[in-house]
Amino acid sequence: MDAQGRGRDEGIDPADQWVLNPDTGDYELRLTPSTGRSVAPSSPGGAAATPSPRRRSKPAPPPPGERASVPGQRDGRGDADARDDDDAQPERKPGGRAANRSGGRGATTSTGRRRTKQKKSGKKKALVWTGGVLAFLLVGVGTTGYFVYEHFNGNITSVSSDGAGTGGFSKDRPINILVIGTDKRTGAGNEGYGDAESVGHADTTILFHVSKDRTNATALSIPRDLIATIPDCPTRQSDGSTKDIPGTEGDRFNTSLGQSERTPSCTMRTVTELTGMKVDHFMVADFNAVKTLTTAVDGVEICLDKDINDKKSRLKLTKGEHNLQGEDALSFLRTRYSVGFGSDLSRIELQQQFLGSLMRKLKSNDTLTSPTKMWSLAEAATKALTVDDKIAEINELRKLGMELASVDPKNITFTTVPVLDNPNDKATVILDESKAPQVFSMMREDVSFTAVEKQEKAAAKAAAAAKLKGEMADPADVRVDVYNGGAPAGSAQNALDWLQNEEGVLKSTNKANAPQDVKRTQLVYAPNQADQARRLADLMGLSASVMKPTKTDAGEMDPMVLTLGPDFTEAGTPLSAPDKAPADIQQVQADKAVCAK
Asked: Is the confidence at residue 445, as pLDDT, over 90?
């Protein structure tokens, strides 16, 4: 009999088997038999089966009741099947919660077990949960956690990434997650919103970049009406075959999903084309996801600087603070005509304010220490979100969540791709070429948009260490071949003229076009050319990430190879990322409560 079955058999709520381990601060799923029963045997093979790409239908276990610090097992509450409705709230026994909360150190639970002194502060315990909604689910998968594993795996829906991403996140590099909100109107109550026949375009798109050291993150909103290049998209079909969907020039960004049967993997490719950044994973949410997720956390707090009565989004609220969930939360996120300039860009700012508030809610002890809310949120998230096939398994989602655990909201910056009105079409926007490349470069080079003490110390240490690594060669001794690998026409000659006439790098040669284009400028050099590479990097403003050392030494007359990519604009302009964002771009930190105007 599995854990869920045993819980019902003994009249135990399965949620009451989540117990706080005082040594680690983690909640763990344990089965302490109340009548001397032995622990259930492990599942065949000792692990859950690999989930199908499609959602599996499975009865939901009872939602957990809210618990005391050291949860005790409570009496059964009747037929679990009566609580299949996701919106149903668990019935509370009179005095049950208060009784479990009474007493301090050494107090006794309802089962007679004595509480152990907790060794971690509430703040430290909270960090265990902040890796995301799903991080707590697989603390101890095995005999006791098997039903939880299987249940949430059965909720997950996935779509192929079609080779568009990196193949999966890694602990030793930054993480890029693409969050896509579609305008698909499927689901109860959604048919009345706008275009009921929408195929589900990328209506809201955020590229969430988490730094390599996990101290900060940048959430970059991409306007749906941005004119973009959508590349060719090889896409897996339901029969296992691959269909090549042709790319287009000058289309709205939102058509990268839904249009011409494009899937989220095509949006991934479009984002890479736009920003130069490879995406690790995607998560897709529809209207229903907004409703269920906000309901699961008992609403999100928002603030208005004025009364709003938006007939398009059906939002009617008075000036001041409000708690929104379900339909109201969806209406708020869809509102644009009654805020700012009434454009999609104004709606993006509204969405960023809402998401910042949601993050604060998720990080709060009120959410993090409540198994009821965490269970409801995990249930809602796994049912509402569609993810790529690389994280279509609860343990992979847990790993991803734990990588995000330490990012403080004050170091999470929401910003938007800098754009200008399209002079040829007032309904669309185009890239602001004077600012957007700087924003993309900062994210590619993992530069924080906020001042992070840990990063500042590391940068100072790295700068000091760099000075000790060796001398830089004299410009006259630098030998380099210059190729054009995707830069504007004439760039190789432009760079050569500057190097020779302005900087004295006379042993340089224009080699015309590179054998193949590169995504960004790079310098390939041998170990015994390191002093030359340092000099050239200093002259051209090359960052460490574009320096590509080989493993073997070069001959005395062998040149280094400099390949100019699309990021090269003009000789003399540094190619390294700026150390701060353009002064007047729109941005807000997730810890700041901002009132919509």
From this structure: no
